[in-house]
Amino acid sequence: MHSVVELDSVRKVLDGRSVLDGADLAVYEGQTLVIIGCSGTGKSVTLKHIVGLMEPDEGQVRVFGELISGQHERIKNRIRLKIGLVFQDGALFDFMNVYDNVAFVLREIYSLPEREIRQKVEWALDLVGLAGIEAKMPSELSGGMRKRVAIARAIVYRPSLMLYDEPTAGLDPIRADIIDSLILRLKDEANTTSIVVTHDLNSAYKIADRICMLHEGRFIIDGAPDEIRKTDNPVVRQFIEGRSSGPIRF
Ligand SMILES: Nc1ncnc2c1ncn2[C@@H]1O[C@H](COP(=O)(O)OP(=O)(O)O)[C@@H](O)[C@H]1O
Ligand SMILES: [Mg+2]
Fold it and tell me: Which of 168, 192, 199, 206 is most buried (most C-beta within 10 Å)?
């Protein structure tokens, strides 16, 4: 199996703190890897290293077998064209309608003809279940719809690697389920490799081939959902138990 993403002993100090402290990670082709971990542990920082928006102080990051850390912006940009990134805040351009938001990369980076752009935008919006909302402005959409538009914008150029930063945060269980199904569908239809950062263990169990936990700068566990559920690693247990809902109160 080819590893699509590889972190090799990555260390990153931010504000005097070792956020990543010798982190090792490998993600294989066609797999969905879910990263769990407490708030502020460096999950978003990890994704930023993978797209080359942050540089490790030590160690290396490879994507598609190619070094991205330490490379020129030109090389990073070429690699980034194969990566779809859904940011934690799902930020859209407020001043553009949905169509222009989703078309942005195809227009600005790929310079595709408008007819081809239209087909791709329609395909992506259809896939996220939002066909027909092209003319709406982001301010007219619910939080869940904005998240789905952000996903459409990331998948529209059919990247072979998708990175999702907390894609279901702030969504109710039904909306979260729609996003989970979408992540699964992309994996099935396009053999997309995905890394999903989430707090939501239900989603994690549903979509993951493997689950990793980031703790004190390293990935401390790596296993299939069933193994994670049953693990006796005390740190992981505490995380899981802290997140499962308590007894129903009347
Ligand atoms: N650009 C930055 N400059 C300084 N500190 C940062 C920066 N980005 C993140 N951090 C710090 O790194 C730590 C991990 O952040 P982050 O990766 O966002 O956590 P999370 O696991 O919640 O995604 C936090 O303490 C955060 O304050
Ligand atoms: Mg984060």
Answer: 168
